[in-house]
What does this fold into?
Amino acid sequence: MSEIKTAVEILKKLEPGVLPFELFHQFARLYVSAIIDVVPLKKQEDGKITTILLERDKNDPHWPGMVHTPGTVVRASDKAGNFSNAFTRVLKDELCDLEIVCGPEFVAYEFRQVRRGSELALVFFVEYRGVPIVGKEVAINNLPENIVENQPEFIKKAANVFNNI
It folds into this structure.
């Protein structure tokens, strides 16, 4: 039990917010992470719906080099009562201020098991305009094989909600 006490004393020194990468991955396997997934969507002139997928780092411990939708972990330091800080991180940091014309619009919540642990994800979509400067624009009916395993299902859910608005 002295190891637990030592761990607790060390953790008390951390400020709420971004955890060191190694600690985040250990906590992620031990508790349920709150996640915001944002599916960027655009209806092309031919009627096809596209999304933007980002590539994970080649050294990612769980999904090396795989593609995924933008998203973030909700942090203890985020403003309480809404997800504005999380959306700002996604839209500014991951999508590099892509022009958003609608959203974020709520799609669904999912409690899921992924390679790094358990997640409670809130899935949203945004409608974008223009050509993305990051990631790859792909048709939702032609998602690549190297996509993170849980994502095609919620991308299609988001596209259905988007298409019915």
